[in-house]
Design a protein that fits this description.
The protein is mainly alpha-helical and about 150 residues long. Helix 4 runs antiparallel to helix 7. Helix content is about 55%, strand content about 0%.
């Protein structure tokens, strides 16, 4: 399983951009206020340049504090998007067996990676709600991995 790496030196700057954008979106109408809209666009441009991810949407960071930390959001912004590829059954099993060992940002990346590469839109539910798929609510990760392998598109 490959390592997800980020440039730790960029983390403080990305955190500051996200913090500024979230505050701006909370304080001003960034749709109708031309100055606020322009400022938000500049913050998005800066975030995209710093992260190297041209698809990042600054509005995705609005109200981040209601469900995660600023550092987690910044780490997610610095991660390259998960690629599409061919996964073997063994690779799927390895990822699922290790998924709960990751910190939040890395776990989310691996869940997206599995979603992209298995075609299962509700992949997170397999991990956290196995009973939705006919498994015991206390099913182990090995059983969950086998179910994901069996159900992949």
């Amino acid at each position: 399983m490959k390592e997800i790496s980020i440039d730790e030196t960029k983390l403080p700057a990305v955190m500051e951009l996200i913090k500024k954008a979230a505050a701006l979106m909370a304080e001003k109408d960034c749709e109708d206020d031309k100055d606020a809209k322009r400022e938000l666009a500049d913050l998005q441009k800066d975030l995209r340049e710093l992260s190297g991810n041209k698809k990042l949407q600054i509005k995705d960071f609005q109200r981040y504090w209601s469900y995660t930390s600023l550092e987690t959001m910044a780490r997610k912004a610095l991660m390259a998007p998960p690629p599409k590829g061919e996964l073997t059954d063994a690779q799927i099993k390895e990822i699922v067996l290790n998924i709960l060992k990751f910190k939040e940002a890395e776990m989310d990346w691996w869940l997206k990676y599995l979603k992209i590469n298995t075609g299962l839109d509700n992949l997170t539910d397999y991990i956290f709600y196995p009973d939705f798929f006919g498994l015991d609510p206390q099913a182990g990760l090995e059983q969950i991995a086998d179910k994901i392998i069996a159900d992949r598109a």
